[in-house]
Structure formats: C-alpha cells, structure tokens
Design a protein that fits this description.
Elements: H1 2-15, E1 22-35, H2 42-47, E2 51-66, E3 69-82, H3 87-90, E4 112-118, E5 121-135, E6 139-146, E7 178-186, E8 192-198, E9 213-222, E10 225-234, E11 237-248, E12 251-261, E13 266-280, E14 283-293, H4 310-318, E15 327-338, E16 341-350, E17 356-367, E18 370-380, E19 390-391, E20 398-399, E21 404-412
Antiparallel strand pairs: 1-2, 1-21, 2-3, 3-5, 4-5, 5-6, 6-7, 7-8, 8-9, 9-10, 10-11, 11-12, 12-13, 13-14, 14-15, 15-16, 16-17, 17-18, 18-21, 19-20
C-alpha cells in the first residue's frame, strides 16, 4: 500500500487541474530466444539443449503538461515464458546465473505487481517511469521513477552505474528506471551541473546512505571539446570520474577514467573509444572500436577466487558490471544495406584469457511502425575462460553457453 499510495499521490499532483493527459505513444514487442549449451555446461544439466523462450512486452507512454510542470508515466505489461526461467531457482545462489525478471525489491517504490508466476512463466505489470518535472529557463528538476545515463563508453560504460545495458544487449531502447531526484542547472556558457540522488531499500526494507546514491556531475565545453567531472557516493563507495569527447581527423574520440574507493581497496578503471562514419560502395557505414580496463576485474588465474572478490561480486549482482576480467577490446560496424536494412557485425574480446563473443545483428524496418531485430551470438574460448565457460564449482562442469539466437518484432503506435 505504501508504494501505490506514493504513486497515486504523485500522479494526482501532476494531473490535477492539468489541461493535457496524453497517451503519447507505445509499443508491443514479441521476442524469441534460442540457446544452446555444450556438453560440459552445468546449465545443460538443468534445462537441456536447446532452450526456447517466448517473451512479450507492452509499453504505454503517458504524459501531461501545464505551464512549466509536466509528468510522465510508462506502463509495462511483461510476459516471460520458456525454459531458462527455471534457472532462476536452480542457480539462484550463483552470481553468473541468468538475470531475473525486472522487479522493485530494492527500489523505493514498489510499482510492480506479479499476476502469475510459475517455473516457466511469469506475467506482471509495472510502472517503469513515473515522475513529476519542473522546467525553467535554466533549471530542470524531476522527482520520481526515471532513467539517467552518464559516461562516454559506447560498449562498456563504467560511469553509467544506473542500470546499464549489457555490452552485448541488442534491444537498448529503454533502460530500467530508478526512483530518484534529478536536477540540472544550465549556465549561460552552455556548461551545466547535474545532480542525482537515488533512493533504494536494503534487505530489511529500509533506505539509508548505505544503499543510496548521490552524484554531482559538471559538463563543460572547452573549444570544440567536451569535458565531464563527476563525484559520487554510490552505496558505500566513493567514486570520482573524469572524461571527455573530442574530434580527431574526422573521427570522434571519447573516454573516461574512473576511480572507485571502497572499504577494501581503491580501483582504477578506464574506457576509450573512437567512432567514425564513411561511405563505401555506395553504402553508409559507421564503426566503433573500444578498449576497456576493468579495475575490479581478475587475471585469468584468479577466476577460481571470484566468489571471494566482494567488490566485484557486488557489482555483478547489482547488474552494474558484466565482465570478470581486466582488459577488453570490442568493436563493431553498422552497414546500411538499404534505407530499411542495417547489418552490424560486432565482437567482444577478453584480452587476458583469449575468449570472446562474435555477434551479428540485423535490423529491418519492413513496414511503417514495424521493426524486426535479429542477432546471432557465438561465444568462443577454452574451458575456464570468461566466454568459454567459467568453473561452476562442480567438477568438470562449466557455466558455459553455446551459440544463441535473438529475434524480436516490434509494433509502434
């Protein structure tokens, strides 16, 4: 009752006397996932091979505005069904198990309601955005559930610690929202300050500084360059980042340096990338190449001690980090085959253990308001490596995946 009461109060405060209450837009997505697992995979012991999953997602974007005030609410109805949902229980204690369905267990407001849930199907509805906003000449303030993305990483993004996407994610249209206060102050120069305070709940349902985030970022233009400086207290850690964007010979160069101080240690992470667009054979093309150093990561011979690496495990569990190694190279090229068809070959490579992931993504706008996405993912590497399969703790069993297929069709209205 507490969460829905807060949500109702927020919604009421934004709509009362409002002149507009709009169904802005929405989408309906259907998704199919095919997964395969090698003979030594522990996952295969639970669900066999191949696995099949069918998912659906309805999203309605509703908003309203009156003078300088506005509000937004994104309603979702989500269906997840298939073989891999069983792994939520079978591998619940393993930090490398498949991600669970989105929930509000740790968010300030509980805006998720599960309609039905069993071993291989879950149906729920939730509010993924619900916030009130004030926009002035130089000030923007938003309170409620919303999403913020910071950082200059295009594939790996250590500065984006608010529900980042997996580097290999194919559908990155909407990232999950958090309950926060966001404020921005714009200077006459075009530079700006941004402040974020995220409220969460701990295991006992209480919210305090141990699980909350407070961050202040300054974004400045220096000639043709952009510079960012960020200070944050994230959970119990102190974070400092600096980065920027510049042009170089027709290419765009971006990067960030991240210093994270915890109770156990101080870690230095960094990301740098270059992106470039060109025309070849009459086709538009764009590419990106990126290097990522994960200061919290492990050398290959230390993978067996992963469970003891408290700081790394915390970020993997919270979904802030998706890599266990130290150094990575990644890149991809998007080729516009026709104005309606794009093909993107991508690759992710762990320099330390020689494993990686090859990915081929296709996008087809086959009809107005319709979009088809498809991806083939092929991991490679020997046993005991990140993409080849880390040790599960059970003799001769790895947490490994074989080739997989992602297919999604979306209708926008």
């Amino acid at each position: 009752m507490r969460a829905w009461g807060l949500a109702a109060l927020l919604l009421f405060s934004t709509t009362i006397q409002a002149q507009l209450l709009n169904l802005k837009s929405g989408h309906l997505k259907g998704q199919y996932l095919l997964g395969t697992y090698p003979d030594d995979s522990l996952i295969r012991d639970f669900v066999g091979t191949p696995t099949h999953d069918l998912n659906a997602d309805l999203r309605l974007l509703i908003d309203g505005r009156k003078d300088n005030w506005s509000w937004q609410g994104d309603y979702q109805m989500v269906l997840r069904s298939g073989d891999t949902l069983e792994l939520r229980q079978a591998l619940a204690d393993n930090i490398l198990s498949p991600a669970a369905v989105q929930n509000d267990d740790r968010r300030l407001m509980d805006l998720t309601h599960v309609i039905s849930d069993n071993d291989n199907r879950i149906l729920l509805y939730r509010m993924d955005r619900l916030h009130l906003a004030y926009t002035g000449d130089k000030i923007v303030v938003r309170a409620g559930r919303q999403a913020v993305s910071w950082g200059n990483g295009l594939i790996y993004n250590p500065v984006d610690f608010f529900n980042p996407f997996d580097p290999a994610a194919v559908d990155t249209e909407y990232k999950a929202g958090d309950d926060m206060l966001y404020a921005q102050y714009l200077q006459d120069s075009g530079n700006d300050f941004q402040f974020v305070s995220v409220w969460r709940r701990d295991d006992d349902g209480h919210t305090d500084h141990d699980v909350n985030t407070n961050a202040l970022k300054y974004h400045a233009f220096i000639g043709e360059r952009e510079v960012d400086v960020l200070l944050a207290q994230h959970y119990e850690d102190d974070i400092f980042t600096t980065g920027g964007v510049s042009s170089w010979g027709g290419a765009i160069v971006r990067g960030d340096i991240v210093v994270t101080h915890t109770d156990l240690d101080t870690y230095l992470s960094a990301v740098a990338n270059v992106s470039y667009s060109w025309t070849w054979g009459g086709k538009n093309m764009s590419g990106v190449f990126e290097y990522f150093h994960n200061g919290l990561g492990l050398e290959e011979n230390d993978y067996d001690n992963l469970q003891q690496e408290t700081d790394l495990v915390a970020r993997l569990t919270r979904g802030e980090l998706f890599t266990v190694g130290k150094n990575y190279l990644a890149g991809g090229v998007t080729i516009e085959m026709t104005p309606l068809i794009n093909i993107s070959p991508n690759a992710f490579f762990n320099i330390g253990d020689g494993s990686g992931l090859a990915q081929l993504v296709g996008q087809y706008n086959f009809k107005q308001n319709w979009l088809f996405l498809m991806a083939l993912n092929v991991p490679f590497g020997s046993s005991g490596t990140e993409f080849g399969g880390l040790d599960s703790g059970i003799p001769d069993k790895q947490l490994s995946n074989g080739p997989g297929v992602f297919a999604q069709i979306a209708f926008y209205f």
